[in-house]
Amino acid sequence: MRKLIRYYAFWYGCLGTLLSLAWYVAALYNRATIPNDVWIVETVFAFHATAAIATFQRGAGPRAWLPMILVTPARLKLARAVFSISLLNFICCLGVFIVGVGLGNQPLVERMVSLILTSFLLMNTIYIFIHWAFRPQNLFSGSFIRAISDPLGILSHRTDDR
């Protein structure tokens, strides 16, 4: 079962990244917006939530699993760069949105909503892909993994009691 989940999350990350990138580019050119059909939104949410739950599991402990792609320094560097660019892109979209709200520029705010959502989905799918492709331990420092796994510090006291 774990192997099936691993394959699902990896391939979701691959395909989700490609589809999110296409949606983001379409949103950049004002050719795509947020879908109005509730079934499309729910389907995307269900696929994404399933992969995210598998990726950001809590309380499972550090179970060993092999990376899906051969880990090399060049590939790790590329993965970090792509993830950093997607994070920076999301932060820029969010910043433009906040500035637009502050200036009262309603057309800019309306345009940025789809860009924020698509850039956030793109950043998430890229992370899901690199998480399963290379394992987080190969990509990030231990302190970053702890911080991202428990950003509010809620779970840290539970691990100290063990």
From TrEMBL:
UniProt superkingdom: Bacteria
UniProt keyword terms in alphabetical order: Membrane, Transmembrane, Transmembrane helix
TM ranges: 7-26, 38-57, 78-100, 112-134
UniProt entry tagged with the keyword Transmembrane: yes
Protein name: Uncharacterized protein
